[in-house]
Amino acid sequence: MSSPADAEFLPPPLGEGGGRGKRRIKDQPSVEGRVPPSQPSPKGGRSKTHVKAALDAWFAAREWKPFRFQREVWKAIAEGKSGLLHATTGAGKTYAVWLGALQAFSQPRKATARPAAPPLTLLWLTPMRALAADTLRALQQPLEALGAEVHPWSAGARSGDTSSSERSAQNQRLPTVLVTTPESLSLLLARADAHEVLGHVRMTVVDEWHELLGNKRGVQVQLALARLRRWNPGLAVWGMSATLGNLHEAMHALLGHEDGVLVQGQVPKKLVIDSLLPGRAERFPWGGHLGLTMLPQVVDEIAGSSTTLVFTNTRSQSEIWYQALLEAKPEWAGTIALHHGSLDREVREWVERGLKSGELKAVVCTSSLDLGVDFLPVERVLQIGSPKGVARLLQRAGRSGHAPGRPSRITLVPTHSIEMVEGAAARAAIAAGHIEARHSPDQPLDVLVQHLVTVALGGGFVPDDLYREVRGTAAYDNLSRESWQWCLDFVSQGGASLAAYPDYKRAVPDAEGVWRVPDARLARRHRMNIGTIVSDASMTVQYLAGAKIGSVEEGFVARMKPGDCFLFGGRLLELVRIHDMTAWVRRASGKRPAVPRWNGGRMPLSNTLADAVVQQLALADEGRYDSPELQCVRPLLELQQQWSALPTPQTLLAETLTTREGSHLFLYPFAGRHVHLGLASLLAWRVAQHEARTFSIAVNDYGFELLSATPVDWPVLLPQVLRLHGEGEGDSSDAREALLHEVLASLNAGELAQRRFREIARVSGLIFQGYPGEKRSGKQLQASSSLFWEVFRKYDPGNRLLQQAEQELLAQELEIGRLRASLVRMAAQQLVLKPLARPTPFSFPLMVELFREKLSNENVADRIARMVEQLEKAAGGVVTAGGVDRVKGSLAFGQEGAGKSAAPRRGGRNGRERRKPSRPLPPL
After folding, report:
1. Number of helices and strands (H, E) in the chain?
2. pLDDT of residue 644
3. Which residues on neighbouring strands pair with residue 180, listed in sequence order?
4. If you write DSSP's letter for every residue of 852-900 in order, what string do you get?
5. Widest pairwise Cα distance in the chain
6. For residues 855 and 670, which has the higher predicted lDDT (pLDDT)?
7. Where are the alpha helices (DSSP H) in 398-504?
8. Does residue 873 surpass a pLDDT of 80?
9. Are 704 and 907 in contact (CB under 8 A)?
10. Whole-number Å distance between alpha carbons of 889 and 328
11. How does DSSP assign 812-859, residue by residue?
């Protein structure tokens, strides 16, 4: 059944968000005394009137009326201001900014037979290449309405998908408006004539700013904008987004100052968030236990809609669901499709055209279709599993009804029982206007090092001038002189340990003190490797007949042998051979396939959604089951309450259980799996300071388990290990340093930081990833980064890239800020410690996570089936696991992502030793 519940979308509440150098770069004209280019020309009054009239007529012909927020943006752009536009998906953000630019910067047509288009005037940055093509089509439509009134503008796109012929033409003359990506903009900045080519840009638009803000690509954009502002101090910059919670901070990161205009598009838009609910919720779930049992309901929902997007959180799950839909409805072949980032570009473009034309009934997809590509025929969205965050839910919901006045609808399809609570929580969070905040990375030196070489290629730089320019960005506003000098030393000689190698003399000062790239070969290498997108080495998947299907990670294919079958691109394929980083395949049938897995699949539950889930559990604790989702999962929650308790914002629930395998602790901070891994390791380490012992750890988004083979007095130890260092000084710098020390000591931090260093080495240019067409395996790249890691640790221990690796490990993988906030919150909560006679509905999923690490799928399935039978009998219910075969079929779900979720850990001072596998838990 479907549980409809409407929520009117309202934008979220606002977030809280030296002297000149002695030399000027040669041939760089001064901009002093020039009218800021972003200001409209005073001679263009008549032209502006005609442009406005033509655009008004274009609006009227489509029976559109400008929204108030669109008029606000037009006015701000006309006044030469910069800012951030935050409005509902599909409300008309693109035309708000684009038509404002046309009105402000268009010039009267000159009396010539064929006037040339103006030089590059407007840059439009998008985070995705597919979005660039779609944006270009949208920008071209109003140009036709201007007719003969104004000087004609040309428009084009430049990205990794741009053909060589078009790229060659653009090298001769760029269009007036260029739609491009951050990486392609950096390549333009690396041109020797970058100032000449980009010096006329009067406005830059950053679309989907929320997608870039929180990562290194956003830092890359900040640095590029700072370079453009140096050439044109009057540059207007506008960002657009629909899903940001900290708007003022986001605008400051984009503009580098606080003087921008924040425009919020208060356009009421109906947003329907509902859930597909199973006939009954199983009271003892495990990750992904519903498997494909929701398939018949999904089929019915797709059949009842014109065009549907079916989002999954991982590429592997998209493959499974696409194949399952085809098996359930063979007649849909050709009308449903698969779309994810590993498929070949031609396949993805075919799917996108089918969506736009309405020829496809459904597309199973991943985040590859998250962003603002305009698919008007899409009527609704299905989300398989938890979206893990409110912003992601809103973004995906906005793919349906993508036009002003049209409702958006997203239906959540749970993959296990507790996810139903997330559905109700997400709806409540949106109604309250709660959206996740995103923050700019702080001083990533690998990106800065890359930018220094880029600017050295793009005309050169004087260090003092560039230092001031870089410090004008939010990411580097606190950059010290010491860090700056280290970066200069690194690009000039590779730092202290690489000074003898000429390949690391990438930028050096010339006779006039201007830093340039001295070697044409190094210049080519740098241009080939510009960017901050780092992915694991992949292999092309190609038919023996020659057609390319896409790419899968090298590690997956490396474990296969010829004759093995796998599911990819919605096809069952047989591996024939591997040669030159290509997996050659042919069609197969009748064999049980493997499904490729890609690293990075598991997303942690966001703070905003986790808090909303706990609020829903608090309602259940009070006996309030008002939503359809809570009604459905009520038997599970009531049993949890009967056998133990429900977590609430005021209480921290802990459960203890003793079995033949040892002493179990289950703790439920509801902080997401990354934080739970750090918390579990930290608590295990603290306990081991009292007495050396070994723990096995399992985590999920709701809590974690610690299992010790020897008894642990948790009622005594747990309050002690949950404490904050320095009573009453939780916010002191000493307390933060103490926590960092403990977290690093509790984990295999060296190995984890080395993994982060691989990415940093690629971005900073230490590792050359190869020229186009050159194949370098992941093992080769890993070996290279490992060599640098060891050299730096031995001969250059103060290398700041090593420090950055540790900082990124703490901030991104362990989310140290969120971990610390969780400890502070937990210290303020009332600890509710419940001894158990048997596993509860909340603890059972964590036990299954440990089973998956220790046992084969057959043994895990048998163990789960027996335990569910025993637990249901104890609860006075009926067995619902469906037997071993059904359980085994569900184990492909809920275990996606990088690495294992559970691992034995030793908390002693002498390191962590892997423990021998224990016997399976005995029957209860």
Report:
1. 33, 28
2. 97
3. 125, 158
4. HHHS-HHHHHHHHHHHHHHHHHHTT----S-HHHHHHHHTTSS--SSS-
5. 92
6. 670
7. 419-431, 445-457, 463-470, 481-493
8. yes
9. no
10. 16
11. IIS-HHHHHHHHHHHHHSEEEEEE-SS--TTTHHHHHHHHHHHS-HHH
Q: How far is CA 605 from CA 55, 167, 210, 700, 827, in A?
A: 45, 42, 18, 9, 21
Distance, in Å, from the CA atom of 475 to the CA atom of 582, rounded to the nearest integer, reads 39
192 burial class (0-12, 13-18, 19+ CB within 10 angstroms)?
A: middle
Return the number of other C-beta atoms located less than 10 Å from residue 708's C-beta: 20
Q: Which two tokens stand for residue 301?
A: 């929902």
> Are 577 and 562 in contact, with CB atoms under 8 Å apart?
yes
**pLDDT given at position 536:** 58
Contact 840, 643 (CB under 8 A): yes
How far apart, in whole angstroms, are the C-alpha atoms of residue 362 and residue 240? Answer: 28
Q: Report the residue count for the chain.
A: 924
Q: How many alpha carbons lie under 13 Å from residue 741 in its C-beta half-sphere?
A: 8
* 3-state per-residue secondary structure call for 567-597: EECCEEEEEEEEECCEEEEEECCCCCCECCC
Nearest 10 degrees: CA dihedral of 557, 558, 563, 566? -20
Determine which of 549-553, 603-607, 850-854 has the lowest per-residue pLDDT on average. 850-854
* Residue keyed to tokens 């694991």: 536
Q: What SS3 class is residue 228?
A: helix
Q: What is the helix (H) or strand (E) element at residue 45, kind and residue range?
A: helix 45-61
pTM: 0.83
Q: Are 842 and 666 in contact (CB under 8 A)?
A: yes
pLDDT score for 273: 93
3-state secondary structure of 309: strand
The pLDDT, as a whole number, for residue 724 is 73
State residue 226 phi and psi, 5-degree precision: -60, -40
* Cβ-based burial of 791 (10 A; exposed 0-12, middle 13-18, buried ≥19): middle
Buried/exposed 121-152: b ≥16 CB within 10 Å, e otherwise: bbbbbbbbbbbbbbbbeebeebbebbeebbbb
Tokens at residue 271, please?
A: 């947003």
Closest C-alpha among 228, 245, 616 to residue 418: 616
Instruction: Tell me if residue 355 falls in helix, strand or coil.
Output: helix
> Contact at 8 Å (CB) between 181 and 202?
no
User: Of all helices (H) and strands (E), which one includes residue 658?
Assistant: strand 651-659
Token pair for residue 489?
Answer: 């030393």
Alpha-carbon distance 330 to 881, whole Å? 28
Cβ neighbours for 45, distance < 8 A, ≥ 6 positions apart? none
User: For 682, phi and psi rounded to 5 degrees?
Assistant: -65, -45
513: left (phi over 0), alpha (psi -120 to 50) or beta: left
Separation between Cα atoms, residue 216 and residue 475, nearest integer Å: 10
Provide the token pair at 682.
């930290």
Distance CA 114, CA 807 (A): 57
Could you tell me if 664 and 705 are in contact, meaning their C-beta atoms sit under 8 angstroms apart?
Answer: yes
CB–CB of 345/401 below 8 Å? Answer: no
The sign of the dihedral angle between the CA atoms of 284, 290, 293, 299 is positive
C-alpha span between 819 and 828 (Å, rounded): 14
With contact defined as beta carbons under 8 Å apart, do 912 and 901 qualify?
no
Cα(first)–Cα(last) distance of the chain, in Å?
Answer: 34
